[in-house]
Design brief:
This protein is an alpha/beta fold. It contains 23 helices and 20 strands. Strands 6-7-8-3-9-10 form a six-stranded mixed β-sheet, with helices on both faces. It has a six-stranded mixed β-sheet with strand order 16-17-18-13-19-20, with helices on both faces. It is globular. The two termini are about 25 Å apart.
Length: about 550
């Protein structure tokens, strides 16, 4: 029988909800064995992060309480110890990697100093020994230049490198248990694969146990031995990875597996959690023949947008007297976009895809080249002409909460662009149109007078879409617009975008680092690398027969499940 490192037994946690307490975690029980990686999967609000914060004694004291159960770690009940006792355990015996490294790292301290801080607190090493150990740790997490990163501040390194610094801090004291809470969510698919490989290597070397928390079942299959599936504060299923994927028992687990776009079959609509739970899953597919008929019709018309030899150059200075250096974020890019088409734009962070999107949106002026919209060059418009064309070319942002004014009601946020562009004859008519649009994106009229903070992430993204389509644009740039969403909510939003495209004749530029999602959504696929086009072809052709090594690397990094 395996040695048990941590045992959670009948754990219940309540959170304050106005005047009363509400149960968020409902009598969950599970074990973590020594030298084991366990995945905890579920959507936002399922309780996976809350139950893990309880292990570290990090639940907010005034608004939460453990109402029953125990968490036994090395014969100690963690629900019964005080903060001083926890300080000896945190970092030394149980460590945690958080989802967002930038908000977890101190921006005013160098990366090396932040790793050293952990060693100063929990070890009796000398200053010189700590410095040597820190450089060894930065090397161990495979940072390309440990000495440079040691001296660098968090903002001077990439997202993947920041996450590696976080991992170095977490393993500094050789903990017995490492909790990784969504450690790869904001990362490119290739960097995600590197972080997963790194965690597996470190685990094999140190024999520590890992709790890996995510909303992506496919990703868990790449790292975990066992999976716990959480839904509405309960563990609905737990088993080996193989069993969960090949013989899922709970409908919620089946829904999580089927909500992710398939790389082999193109379903007309993606199944959502509700579809699976209600047994209303549509199996209708889009065949290659159907795609060909659609594309023949699509590409027979003149292009809506032509990008010709486009360049965007930035000038950077590293010091006051330093020589200015130029950097081409977009380098000689040309392509056509047709009315009713979805062009997928994919590549790693820094490849230039968002810069290209911003140039098309006229948010960032191109240095060279032309952008022809309906045959007219839009790179040198007057201010009035720019405002007019903004009605036709719109954006759906990655973070809907940051793009909505928290002090303005949803109704006013949707009506505001209508007013700016003089759409409709009266405020009453604009209100009626706003409510109609809210209904189209799956929200009812009660949303009209509510504020952004009153909605979930998926609902806020629907509001962002409603605000965009309020102007009846021709071309919409979707910039990582589903990357922060749960798998099932992502399925709902992708279905909605496709439905709106069919109903309103929208044309999309769909930017994402998730190749599975881009392949599902796109007619053509444009792969970018270092500001240039690496490959441009039909999405299915690129996925099935990639020509370039870079594209092959991106495809190989997609978590496939079992």
């Amino acid at each position: 029988m395996a040695d048990i490192l941590l045992k959670t037994d009948s754990l219940s946690i309540d959170f304050k909800n106005e005047d009363s307490f509400k149960t968020i975690i409902n009598t969950i029980s599970y074990t973590i064995n020594k030298n084991e990686i366990v995945g905890i999967v579920g959507e936002s609000g399922s309780g996976k992060s809350v139950s893990s914060l309880a292990i570290l004694g990090l639940l907010p004291k005034r608004i939460s309480k453990i109402t029953s159960g125990s968490i036994i770690f090395n014969d100690t009940d963690l629900t019964k110890i005080n903060n001083k006792q926890f300080q000896k355990i945190r970092g030394q015996q149980i460590a945690m990697i958080f989802q967002e490294p930038m908000s977890s790292l101190n921006p005013s301290m160098t990366c090396g100093k932040q790793v050293e801080e952990i060693l100063f607190q929990h070890t009796s090493l000398t200053k010189k020994e700590i410095e040597t150990e820190t450089l060894t740790l930065l090397e161990k997490v495979k940072l390309p230049d440990p000495t440079r990163v040691y001296k660098a501040y968090p903002h001077e390194i990439s997202g993947g490198q920041k996450q590696r610094v976080m991992i170095a801090m977490a393993i500094a004291c050789k903990p017995q248990l490492l909790i990784a809470d969504e450690p790869t969510t904001a990362l490119d698919v290739t960097v995600q694969k590197e972080i997963i490989s790194l965690l597996k290597e470190l685990q094999a070397e140190t024999k520590m146990s890992i709790i890996f928390i995510t909303h992506d079942l496919s990703l868990i299959s790449e790292i975990a031995n066992r999976i716990l599936v959480m839904y509405k504060g309960e563990i609905v299923e737990q088993n080996t990875v193989d069993h969960i994927f090949k013989h899922p028992e709970h409908n919620y687990t089946k829904a999580l597996i089927s909500s992710r776009p398939s790389l082999d079959v193109r379903l007309k609509t993606l199944p959502t959690i509700a579809d699976v739970l209600n047994n209303t899953v549509s199996t209708e597919t889009i065949t290659p023949q159907m795609r060909k008929i659609k594309h023949d019709k699509l590409y027979a018309s003149p292009p809506l947008l032509q990008v010709i030899n486009l360049e965007k150059e930035y000038i950077s200075k590293s010091g006051f007297f330093a020589k200015a250096e130029t950097f081409k974020a977009v380098n000689n890019v040309s392509f056509n976009l047709y009315e009713g088409e979805t062009l997928g734009l994919v590549g790693e962070s820094g490849c230039g895809k968002s810069t290209l999107g911003n140039a098309i949106l006229l948010l960032d002026k191109a240095t060279k080249g032309q952008i022809l919209y309906k045959g007219k060059d839009i790179t040198n418009l007057t201010k009035a002409e720019t405002i007019a064309i903004r009605k036709d070319i719109q954006i759906i942002f990655q973070d809907p909460y940051a793009s909505l004014n928290p002090r303005i009601t949803i109704g006013n946020a949707i009506m505001e662009p209508m007013t700016v562009h003089n759409l409709y004859s009266s405020a009453q008519e604009r209100q009626e149109k706003a409510i109609e649009i809210l209904n189209r994106v799956g929200l009812d009229e009660t949303a009209f007078n509510r504020y952004p903070h009153e909605f979930s992430g998926g609902q806020r993204q629907r509001i962002g879409i409603a605000r965009t389509i309020a102007l009846q644009p021709k071309l919409i740039v979707c910039d990582e617009s589903v990357s922060a969403l749960d798998i099932s909510v992502q399925a709902q939003v992708l279905n909605l975008l496709n439905e709106l495209k069919d109903n309103f004749g929208f044309t999309y530029i769909f930017i994402s680092h998730d190749l599975a999602v881009v392949k599902y959504m796109s007619d053509q696929l444009l792969v970018m690398n270092h500001g240039q086009i690496e490959e441009l072809d039909d999405a299915d052709i690129i996925y099935n027969t990639p020509k370039k090594d870079y594209t092959k690397k991106l495809i190989a990094a997609i978590p496939k499940g079992l």
